[in-house]
């Protein structure tokens, strides 16, 4: 980092991110994420069918029309791409609002938020709500308690999410560098 005079900033001169804003943003991001997942899920569980374990999908398709659920199918790819771009925009804006001024700070900040959401999704939404709330189960699969409690499946999906998050957060760091 350098100042306007061209000399490097010392550690004490570097602006520290505002942790109060970061904490508020963490809470806001979790609320927003919960709404973005749960509202469509409660209205139509089939909306997120591509994120259900395969055995649940197969049981559902025994009595319902098959729709594409592969990651590279057009509909799933569009949903996932939109989600990643939305996350990139939100993470960049939040990093800027919290005072991130360089690539490293904004990357670490945004990846911290990403991990918070990723782990919240796995350990609370998937392990607790998804596994136990019958309303969000696919029609015809309500009886599949064991299939809905597949913790390993959700951990693997979380690890994939952590890798995808690296890309988004590297881009968020780069965007903060461009904007600042």
Description:
The chain starts with 18 loop residues before the first helix and ends with a helix. It has 6 helices and no strands. 22% of the residues are buried. The protein has 180 residues and is mainly α. It has helices spanning 19-43, 54-61, 74-97, 103-132, 145-148, 151-179. Helix 3 (74-97) crosses helix 4 (103-132). The protein has one domain (18-179). The longest helix is centred in the middle third of the chain and has 30 residues, at 103-132.
The overall pLDDT, averaged over residues, is 89
Query: Could you spell the SSE succession in H and E letters?
Result: HHHHHH
Low-confidence stretches: none
Outline the biggest β-sheet.
Answer: none
Structural class: mainly alpha
Gyration radius, to the nearest Å? Answer: 20 Å
Strand content: under 5%
Helix share, percent: 55-70%
User: DSSP helix count?
Assistant: 6
Per DSSP E runs of 2 or more residues, the count of β-strands stands at 0
Shape: elongated
Our count of domains comes out at 1
